[in-house]
Amino acid sequence: MIALRKSAPDVAQEVDMARDETGLRRFLEPDCAALIWQRETPADVQHWLDRVDPDRLPRGRVIVQPEMIARVLAEFCVMSGLPQGPEQDWLQADVTRLAGAFSSLMAARYLRFRLDVVTTNACRKFHVDAITARLVCTYRGTGTQLGVSRQGETPAHAQTVATGSPLLLRGTRWPAQPASGLLHRSPPIEGTGESRLVLVLDPVTDPGDEVESHMTTPAAAALH
Length: 224
Ligand SMILES: [Fe+2]
Hints:
The protein is α+β, with helices and mostly antiparallel strands. Helices cover 19% and strands 25% of the residues. It has 3 helices and 10 strands, in the order ββαβααβββββββ. A 7-stranded mixed β-sheet has the order 1-2-8-5-10-4-3. A 3-stranded antiparallel β-sheet has the order 7-6-9, with no helix packed on it. Helix 1 (43-51) packs across helix 3 (86-106) and helix 2 (69-80) runs antiparallel to helix 3. The longest helix has 21 residues, at 86-106. Fe (ii) ion is lined by residues 127, 129, 184, 215, 224. This is DUF1826 domain-containing protein. InterPro entries: DUF1826. It comes from Phaeobacter inhibens.
């Protein structure tokens, strides 16, 4: 676990852990800089996910009402040619569950819903996203990495979030100030042959005002 600025009580201090959906409410407390929902994908599903042809992994991005996530994901799976079966059923149910839990937690009427298949170092620099909050869950491959920067320096250490464990992050538009110094990046996998399947959910209050998210610390592409 990463401990942040222990000496400043009004600053988010911890990357905390949740064991179940109920524990996600910890994310809303002032001293929680980020939250990891510790859990494991069922072994048979993970085995299947790790071996699916990367070209057939579902991908796409859309702003959608949370209750429409299941239908949209089903379309993504059809478009990519993901093999049908109980493992795909589990993936669809899990993404739908995370979308429901996160939209409820954030009181979001809409979500920016992304499924990315990542094979590069597209976002290897540590950064904070210009958003309110984000849920990231890596279903296949190495998880998102966290690090602390107190004075703008590159973090000396990185903590890798476990595959299958959702990570809830604050962005620069989170109302709490000052910032915690907690940064994140996608793991450096280029040249390894690894293919990651990453779910990203952002709360969207008004889709009419929606603009593409971008990163601020430092500038880089929008992957995890
Ligand atoms: Fe990011």
